[in-house]
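Project standup — Tuesday

K.O.: blocked on the structure for the chain from last sprint. Re-posting the sequence here as requested.
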Amino acid sequence: MPITYKRWNRLNERKELALTLQNELKIHPILCQILAQRGITDFNAAKSFFRPTITDIHSPWLMKGMEVAVTRILEAIDKKEKILIYGDYDVDGTTAVAIVFDFIATLFENANLEYYIPNRYKEGYGLSKKGVDYAVENGFKLLITLDCGIKSSELILEAKNRGVETIICDHHLPGKDLPQAVAILNAKQNDCGYPYKELCGCGVGFKLIHAIALKKGFPENSYLKYLELVATAIAADIVPITGENRLLTFHGLKQVNASPSIGIKALIELSELKGPVNISSLGFMIGPRINAAGRMDDAKKAVALFIEKDPSKALYIASLLQTDNNHRKEADKEITKDAISMIEENHVESNKKSTVLYSPEWHKGVIGIVASRLLERFYKPTIIFTKSGDVVAGSARSIPGFNIHEGLEQCRELLIGFGGHYFAAGMTLLPENIEAFKNKFEKIVDDTLDPHHFIPEIHIDAEVLLSDLTPMFFNIMQQMEPFGPENAKPIFCATKVKNAGSRIVKENHVRFQVEQNGTMYNGIGFNLAEKYNEISDQSILDLVFTLEENTFNGQTSLQLKVIDVASTDTNK
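H.V.: unblocked you, prediction finished:
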């Protein structure tokens, strides 16, 4: 039985492509191997990757419907028609609303604008009946949806019949029948020629204001100044950090670190972020504070923060988001603890292939986070349910090998509604159907997954010698940032390294000192204490790790951030 509890999967080395790239770039062959694995196979592609220029962003006019959308918006502004900017309550939706609203409000004094964010608990996700009613009853003539709308055919038709036209800006996969909107901006439409298909909702909103700026001859900064919010949305929405997304994020991060807007600066201050802001900071420090508004209270506060011009008022609004986030963390912690107890204290539950839990007392705003935490701990498809009015609402997370959306499709007769994608989904059902759903879902998971699916897999980019890991190697590797989906921080393995001393620190972590052919490295393995007894008396180890800088007492050095460890005689 191997010591490691994770499957180590070494990616294809693509040696021939890597060798060609090395001849052109003259950098370490392992870095060339990683670039080749990521589709960067010649000098020009590498130049664009390492030195992305903002002039390389695609023309917004390539997106189907853009000309019609811009013409209709400018017409509405000229006629002083009331325009409602409508977006979802998460980071992607609120940042999209903020940039479109602020851009138009700033550059068009005559614009008659308002923004609308639905309430998570009263209206749910996406375009709502209440939102359409609000637009009609308050005399709006044009509705611009951001990060939603592509699946809202009935509501958009109702709005049209009641005198409100709609422009959809969305990035979710369209259905067979598209809504009857004035224009649909979504690169995932079958007949859309836009060359990059993975923009987030805020990214689509950015392309809209870019097009308006071009049409009106506004200066570049009129739209480029919003790149920091686009980068924040990309980080929080977990879209691929490839192509145009990577370019937008690269320049958005430069902006955050050089001259952040009033709203982002307030969030950085309250987050107590030290040093340069990176994609991880945006995704795991800034993003949750923005999301917390919609989870715990009213997401309109997030938009208000990003359009605020007074620093003191912005700091006050940011403090409200901080309070919401503190409440979110408390609820998250308590519900996660409760859910873990429900599993570990129930032998039948702990032996199931899926985790499906329900409590009417749990806070709806954090059940998705709790589902993610349970998946991380127990590594099986997970659904967390709570009461939502007269029905039960659930949030699902899954593992590679099990498409959660397809699984729910097989249970659709027990559900009121559902939506999502491979790894995450949401659903509603009647309380009396919970047990039947649990049983059917468990059977579907059991029939679909094999035992190996329940062992987490680590994708290793390359095997290295410790002597490869020089400051120059690290410096070039860091230029591969920003890291994220499809451009993850490289994961390495080193085999047959000598255990020169390991010890437990702060109860859950292991401090390593390892040596290989005369090269010594320190490392830290977070939450690896349970493996300490299995490796403490092993003289030779295999390690899986990422490379990072560690600053201590004013001195900065490279260290290994150990993800997994095994003795060499058991990990073959």
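K.O.: great, moving the ticket to review. The chain is about 40% helix and 20% strand. The longest strand covers residues 492-505.
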